[in-house]
Amino acid sequence: MRSTWPGRTAVTLVAAATTILVIGWARTPNPLASMPEGEFWERKFTAPQSDIVFAGDSRVGIGISPAAVEATAGLSCLNYAFTSVGYSGEYVAAIRDHVRPSGVIVLGISPWTLTPRSLLDNGFKGLSALPRRSPRLARAALDWRLRFQSTMKALNTAVMDEAHFGTTLHLDGWMEVHAESSDPKKALSLYAQNFDDNPVSDELVSRVMGSVRDWSRQDILVLGFRPPATLDMVSLENRKGAFDEAAFVRRFKDAGGVWLDIPLEYDTYDGSHLLAASAQRLSHEIGRAIRGRQRR
């Protein structure tokens, strides 16, 4: 079926619209889908522990194929990303619960995940409140999609014609995106408004650093990376979100983490979400980095 990532309730009209915008608006069946949407989300909560767990927002959810990571690193892998998620205490604890002892946690750091508004309502918070194996969970994605349908029609700012956009949902948590066209600049103005009165929070940054330190002491390898985006998007988020990436990376390394410098040479459909071929290429690249660290 065609799919969207469940998003936060209307923090602001624009922020809510952007949640749907950035992963495409789709309402008709997608013959490529490998599993029902409700089952896809429930699987993230009920999946057994893996050697490698990826965390972050939809840029990680769409940008990382665990199968590609596994093929390169030789370790089991789960994509535990949720749309619009922030690194709340609950989310951080759930990340740890999904990784095996002496495993690997890979944090995708986009500026949004470190903002106060990211904690108010997001895919993880909304779905984790529902009982497991409940019909309510299976209906959750549809409910959120219908909630924002009128907003999307009113704004008329879809990144692309939905007839040329499709997704495949994978058991390992990857949402594979295919698109026949893209517009990397289309979403810039909406993203800019996501950071109005909502800069990166030092409290959230400190929480991430504390988790990195704790996990490292538990013999867990912690890696971090900034999901690829266009230079225009990166510059906008750094400026509007008051995100000092260099300072963040220094603190991340001081806490015991390993930072991966990912080039911006990947194809997106909206400036920050990767197309399937680029997602697989990035996944192999990170898989090689993990394999190299594990051999030391």
* Class inferred from helices and paired strands: alpha/beta
Number of strands: 7
State the order of secondary-structure elements, H for helix, E for strand: HHEHHEHEHHHEEHHEHHEH
> With helices defined by DSSP (H or I, 4 residues minimum), what is the helix count?
13
Net shape: globular
What's the story with the biggest beta sheet? Answer: 5 strands, parallel
Rg is 17 Å
Proportion of β residues?
A: 5-15%
Terminal CA distance reads 43 Å
Name the helicity range.
40-55%
Mean model confidence by pLDDT:
81
List the defining traits of the structure above.
5-stranded parallel beta sheet, alpha/beta, two-stranded antiparallel sheet, disordered N terminus, 296 residues
Task: Explain what you see.
By secondary structure, the chain is of the alpha/beta class. It is built from 13 helices and seven strands. The chain has helices at residues 13-21, 37-46, 58-63, 66-73, 89-97, 123-128, 135-147, 149-155, 188-194, 202-217, 231-240, 245-254, 276-294; strands spanning 50-55, 77-79, 99-108, 165-169, 175-179, 221-225, 258-260. The strands form two sheets. Strands 2-1-3-6-7 form a five-stranded parallel β-sheet, with helices on both faces. It has a two-stranded antiparallel sheet with strand order 4-5. It is globular and about 40 Å long. The N and C termini lie far apart (43 Å). The model is unreliable at 1-33 and 144-163 (pLDDT under 50).
